[in-house]
Amino acid sequence: MTGLTTLTTLAANTTSTGEAVQFWILGTVAVIGALCTVLMKRAVHSALCLAATMIILAVFYLANGAYFLGVVQIVVYTGAIMMLFLFVVMLVGVTAADSLKETLKGQRWLAALCGLGFGVLLITGIANASLKNFNGLGAANTAHGGNIEGIAALLFTKYVFAFEITGALLITAAVGAMVLTHRERTERARTQRELAEQRVREGRQLPPLPAPGVYARHNAVDIAGLLPDGTPSELTVSRTLRERGQIRDVSTQALEDLKALERRSEDRLGREGHGGPALPGDRNDSGRDGNDSGRDRGGSGHDQDDCGHDQNDSGRDRDEEEAHR
Amino acid sequence: MSPVNYLYLAALLFTIGAVGVLIRRNAIVVFMCIELMLNACNLALVAFSRMHGNLDGQIIAFFTMVVAAAEVVVGLAIIVSLFRSRHSASVDDASLMKL
């Protein structure tokens, strides 16, 4: 206890070199975190930067002798409020990036200018204020036996009315949040049987909806399955993703692959067409080796043709590789 | 180091938060910037409490935290219901109070 008391006196009464070092290092990080909160494009990154800033502020509270507030800052702010923020970010959609379109022309620069002016005003105001007397929290923290006891003594005597009002405020906030997020059901929820009957009656989509993804290539839920002609089918992606516009389209890629495949096979067939009499084993892959050797045996007059044939072979190998993948 | 530096840091953080409120369009990020401003105020209050040698500043900071918690709950509920009705969390889309 005496150790804590001396620590309290020390921490609150003097600004040691250690505290100065801590202030300059952590203060820089806090400002960087705050800037990142404002400048990061995605809300999740902003939330994480803000959480870092809040933890640093908790350390500053502790350094200032406000032990209770320091712990409450970590528990309430970074533990509860920031997690609530992250929940809402996840609910709203992590990828919902900020629109960079300016509604008012030049508003960003004006806002930054106003902020700069405001900051300069605030800082010169603090610089001009007479903040010479510096008492330290030592006496106040030890008057009732500690920081928490001192706060409790004040909270339940001088500020007891405000404390009670706070309770009413919290209850109101909880009820308000429930009312705001509650959705009134205007009709009874339909049962599974009724839904099935409705589906049969409408006759639009009797079997279950098709699955997303393209077989053996992609199976992510946000990639629409491809119809036989290569166009994506919107039906295969879940309604939520469809409404958010988060469908990745790989149909053009698939179509290009298909086109390349066709070109290669045409190439091969075309060359084989004018390269001499086609052997019956020419079409299938198993007869390829025999075919090659036969062609070599055919004589030296077909050197050019052999070259072309080799190219075709390599193309065919690529085909096989892709099929494996 | 003078403890006035804490006040300068608080002023800086408050300014950054205010600029963020003005320039960002995402309602959630705007809300986070408001939290940043509240935190900066709390830091200033704690520093004042240390300067004056009494705990009243810490009590006020404590009340600020309670009010901020209540505010976050209601504000995020409003953002969620706005997102439900408009499918966007941008403050530009919520320019009309009605749907």
Automatic annotation (TrEMBL), chain B:
Gene of this entry: nuoK
Annotated catalysed reactions: a quinone + NADH + 5 H(+)(in) = a quinol + NAD(+) + 4 H(+)(out)
Major localization class: membrane
Biological function: NDH-1 shuttles electrons from NADH, via FMN and iron-sulfur (Fe-S) centers, to quinones in the respiratory chain. The immediate electron acceptor for the enzyme in this species is believed to be a menaquinone. Couples the redox reaction to proton translocation (for every two electrons transferred, four hydrogen ions are translocated across the cytoplasmic membrane), and thus conserves the redox energy in a proton gradient.
Lineage per the UniProt record: Bacteria, Bacillati, Actinomycetota, Actinomycetes, Kitasatosporales
Family, as annotated: Belongs to the complex I subunit 4L family.
UniProt source species: Streptomyces jumonjinensis
Lipoprotein keyword on record: no
Regions that span the bilayer: 6-23, 28-48, 60-83
Database matches in NCBIfam families: PRK05715.1-2, PRK05715.1-3, PRK05715.1-5
Listed GO biological process terms: ATP synthesis coupled electron transport
EC number: 7.1.1.-
Enzyme class: translocase
Keywords for this protein: Cell membrane, Membrane, NAD, Oxidoreductase, Quinone, Translocase, Transmembrane, Transmembrane helix, Transport
Protein name: NADH-quinone oxidoreductase subunit K
Bilayer topology annotation: Multi-pass membrane protein
Quaternary data: NDH-1 is composed of 14 different subunits. Subunits NuoA, H, J, K, L, M, N constitute the membrane sector of the complex.
Localisation per UniProt entry: Cell membrane; Membrane
InterPro entries found in the cross-reference section: NADH_UbQ_OxRdtase_chain4L/K, NUOK/Mnh_C1-like
PANTHER family: NADH DEHYDROGENASE SUBUNIT 4L-RELATED (PTHR11434:SF21), NADH-UBIQUINONE OXIDOREDUCTASE SUBUNIT ND4L (PTHR11434)
One Gene Ontology term of the molecular function aspect: NADH dehydrogenase (quinone) (non-electrogenic) activity
GO cellular component, one term: NADH dehydrogenase complex
Keyword RNA-binding on entry: no
Top-rank taxon, per record: Bacteria
